[in-house]
Every structure is written in structure tokens, then in C-alpha cells.
From TrEMBL:
Pfam families: p450 (PF00067). Keywords: Heme, Iron, Metal-binding, Monooxygenase, Oxidoreductase. GO terms for molecular function: heme binding; iron ion binding; monooxygenase activity; oxidoreductase activity, acting on paired donors, with incorporation or reduction of molecular oxygen. The keyword Lyase does not apply. Its cofactor is heme. One of its GO terms (biological process) is sterol metabolic process. This is Cytochrome P450. CDD domains: CYP120A1_CYP26-like. Belongs to the cytochrome P450 family. Heme binds at residue 390.
Length: 445
């Protein structure tokens, strides 16, 4: 599997490019089993044409390691994601490569680790409690939209220093419009999803610019203030425009995927009373006071397993795009420079050669005795891998554990019967019904 001395006579991956211009894009966006059908037919690498580019889809832990580690320099993030991402999210860390990415990741790192996380804990818990109290009063609500608002508020308050209140709802709605435009046809005609996404982006950037100017004058403890003040070893700092796009990315990364995972968590806890019962027993052992602490969070080992299994079976994003900047061969097939690749998170996570009974929700596969994800490198990649592993992972883990602990310790709920629980992957995984809840009530003390 080397890119050296490539023989152009090596065959391209099997598969079809589809129709002129649009290729197989419509099937890709509408068929949940697009990659699975072709994997079953062609194996771990196949070709297609989606989102305007010839594409090699690569599947399995070996492919993940090839892309994320051993042949990392053959691929570009900036040239991989669709043009809609670049237009809507700007040239943020997500779409940077090489030294530029390394430098800016280093500037952003302090906002998501160490003392910053400790500082976030109390506010994060307070916001989560306010939503749980709100749902207790409502009793009936739709979880996906509520969790999206909650995680957006957490990201907005902690990362940008926004004030809690009505403006959060307004900004959250703008962000929903932006997210809905990421995987859609980029028609800038008034009334289209993409037109609304552009408007949402522009209004969010205006808001962010105002917030950055405020932080320059009066810094606080939020991540935006850290960004405004941070300099690298050469004394370089980010410009207002650079901070704006990085802040937009922090908002996006800080709530979209977490919303998806928390929605899936709530779904599986309702569907698997035995797992909920075991999670409750763990919380009862830890709960010597009503207060949740960082020390308790570290000791929630069963909840860790549950969250890993949510990541495995319900990954928020089905795969990752990269642009091919150096040609390569993989499993006997040649992929030219200028193509894009898509590595499949979903199909790797459901590979029976890695995970026992992969369609079954089984947190015990991650216990110390089994540790199925450690048998093969890069087999659990919901948060990426290698040097581009998710910067906000610790932030997301803390948020999800605080939420899960408060929910499991204090509440009982039922799912509304007859709702559509089939899963929609756009923009991130969620039930088509949004997960309708009824009888959300406090547990008897």
C-alpha cells in the first residue's frame, strides 16, 4: 500500500460513477444503505461520484488507519469536504491542513482542556438542570430539538460567553438554518434551505464580531476571551476574521454531534430498561450527596461503556471526507490525485470481524474483560483518530456525563407510542420523529 512508483495500469476501484455531472449524489443523500450495498458488492474500497467529485469510499479499521495515520500526508481536509462546508463554516480549523492547522489547533487547545474544563463544570451543570426542570413542567416534548437548544446554550455561554436568555433561542435557530444547508444543493434562491443557511451564517458572524470586540475590551473566562488573548511562541495572534470562523466552528462542533449522541442515549435508555437499571445502580453507588463532582464523573465506568456503545452503534456522522493530494494504492486499487475519499465510520462500527453481534446494543463489549475496540486499531472512530482526534472530546464527554447522571438519578420518562424512530443522517443522526417524550417526571425520593 504505497504511493511510490505507482503504476498507472493498476486498476481503479470497482464501482460506478453514475450519471453525468450529478453522479450518484441523489442516491447518496437519500439511500441510508448507499455504502452498505456497495460494500457488500465490491468490498472495502469502491468508486463512485458524489457531491461533484470522483470518490473512493474506504471501509474498515485498516482503511481508517491508512487515512488517519500511516498515509495521513496523502489527504487534505480542506480539499475533502463539500464546497457547502467551506462556504458556510469558513476556513476554520476543520478545513485547515499542515502547519496552519497545527498552529491554530495549539491556540484553541487551552479552551477545551485542563483548567478551562474545571471552570466550565458548574455552569454546564446549571444549564442542564434548568432544562431538566423545564421538561419536568412540560412533561411532553420532543427531545432532539430540546437537546439541540440545550447543547447550543452550553456552547454559546461557555465558549462565547453569551448571556443566557432569549437571544440564545434566536442564535440557536440561526444555527439550525446553517446546519440544514450543509448537505443540500447550494441554490442561493430566496426561500431555499441554502439561502436560509447563508443568511444564518451572516447573522451569526455579525453577532460573533460584536462579541469579539467586547472581549478585546473586557476579557472574561470563556473560550472566546482565551482566543482573543492567546499568542503563539512567536507572538502571533488571530485576526478578528480568523477568530470569527474559529468561533463559528466551536459553536458547530460544540453542539451538533453532542445533540445527536444525547438523543441516541435517551432513546436506548428508554428501549433497554436493563441497561438503564445498571446505569442507575452505578449512580446510586456514587451518589453520597446531591452534588455531582468531577471525581464522580471520572468513576462512571459503566456510563463510559454506554456512551462508547452509543458512539459505535449510533455515530452522529456516518463518515469523513478527505481530498487526495497524493495518489496511492489500497488493497490493489489505484486512487488518483484530485479525487476525494470517504471513510465509513458507520460500517466500520458494524463490522462483525471487529465487534461481536454488531447490530446489538451491548455496553459490556467495552468492559475490561472484552475491550473489543482495542483488538484492532482505529475500529472506534466516532471522534476521529490520530493527530486530528476531536479537539472538543473532553468537553463533550463531561457534558454528556453530567446530563446522563442528572437524568438517570432524578427522572423517569416514556416514549410516545407509534412515532417514527427510523434514523435520519442529515445533518447529524436523529430519529425522524425527533424523539417524542411523554410523562417526563421526577423519581420519588
Amino acid at each position: 500500500m504505497s504511493s511510490q512508483n505507482l503504476d498507472q495500469n493498476i486498476p481503479l476501484p470497482p464501482g460506478k460513477f453514475g450519471l453525468p455531472l450529478i453522479g450518484e449524489t441523489i442516491n447518496f443523500l437519500t439511500d441510508q444503505d448507499f455504502a452498505l450495498k456497495r460494500y457488500q458488492k465490491y468490498g472495502s474500497i469502491f468508486k463512485t461520484n458524489i457531491l461533484g467529485k470522483p470518490t473512493a469510499v474506504m471501509i474498515g479499521s485498516e482503511a481508517n488507519k491508512f487515512i488517519l495515520q500511516s498515509h495521513f500526508d496523502h489527504f487534505s481536509w480542506a480539499k475533502g469536504w463539500p464546497a457547502t462546508f467551506q462556504e458556510l463554516l469558513g476556513k476554520s480549523l476543520f478545513l485547515q491542513d499542515g502547519e496552519e492547522h497545527k498552529k491554530n489547533r495549539k491556540l484553541l487547545m487551552p479552551s477545551f482542556h485542563g483548567q478551562a474544563l474545571i471552570n466550565y463544570f458548574e455552569t454546564m451543570e446549571s444549564i442542564i438542570k434548568s432544562y431538566l426542570n423545564k421538561w419536568e413542567k412540560q412533561q411532553n416534548f420532543t427531545w432532539f430539538s430540546e437537546l439541540k437548544q440545550m447543547t447550543f446554550e452550553i456552547a454559546s455561554v461557555l465558549l462565547l460567553g453569551s448571556e443566557r436568555g432569549d437571544k440564545i433561542d434566536y442564535l440557536s435557530n440561526l444555527f439550525t438554518d446553517l446546519s440544514n444547508g450543509l448537505f443540500t444543493i447550494p441554490l442561493k434562491i430566496p426561500g431555499t434551505k441554502y439561502s436560509k443557511a447563508i443568511r444564518g451564517r451572516d447573522l451569526l458572524l455579525q453577532h460573533l464580531e460584536q462579541e469579539i470586540i467586547k472581549r478585546k475590551e473586557n476579557p472574561s473566562n470563556d473560550a472566546l476571551s482565551l482566543l482573543v488573548q492567546t499568542q503563539d511562541e512567536d507572538g502571533n495572534s488571530l485576526s478578528i476574521n480568523e477568530i470569527k470562523v474559529q468561533a463559528l466552528l466551536m459553536l458547530f462542533a460544540g453542539h451538533e454531534t453532542t445533540t445527536s449522541m444525547l438523543t441516541s442515549l435517551c432513546l436506548v435508555l428508554a428501549q433497554h430498561p436493563d441497561i438503564l437499571d445498571q446505569a442507575k445502580k452505578e449512580q446510586e453507588k456514587l451518589q453520597n450527596t446531591d452534588i455531582i463532582t468531577l471525581e464522580q464523573i471520572k468513576n462512571m465506568t459503566y456510563l463510559d461503556q454506554v456512551l462508547k456503545e452509543v458512539e459505535r452503534l449510533y455515530p452522529p456522522v456516518a463518515g469523513g471526507f478527505r481530498g487526495v493530494v497524493k495518489p496511492f494504492t489500497f488493497n490493489g486499487y489505484y486512487v488518483p490525485q484530485g479525487w476525494q475519499i470517504l471513510y465509513s465510520i458507520q460500517l466500520t462500527h458494524q463490522n462483525s470481524e471487529i465487534f461481536t453481534n454488531p447490530k446489538t446494543f451491548d455496553p459490556q463489549r467495552f468492559n475490561k474483560e472484552r475491550e473489543e475496540h482495542r483488538k484492532t486499531e482505529y475500529s472506534l472512530v466516532g471522534f476521529g483518530g490520530g493527530s486530528r482526534f476531536c479537539l472538543g472530546y473532553a468537553f463533550a464527554q463531561m457534558e454528556m456525563k453530567i446530563f446522563a447522571a442528572l437524568l438517570i438519578r432524578n427522572y423517569h420518562w416514556n416514549l410516545e407510542q407509534g412515532q417514527d424512530l427510523s434514523l435520519n443522517r442529515i445533518p447529524t443522526l436523529h430519529p425522524n420523529s425527533g424523539l417524542k417524550v411523554k410523562e417526563f417526571q421526577p423519581l420519588p425520593k
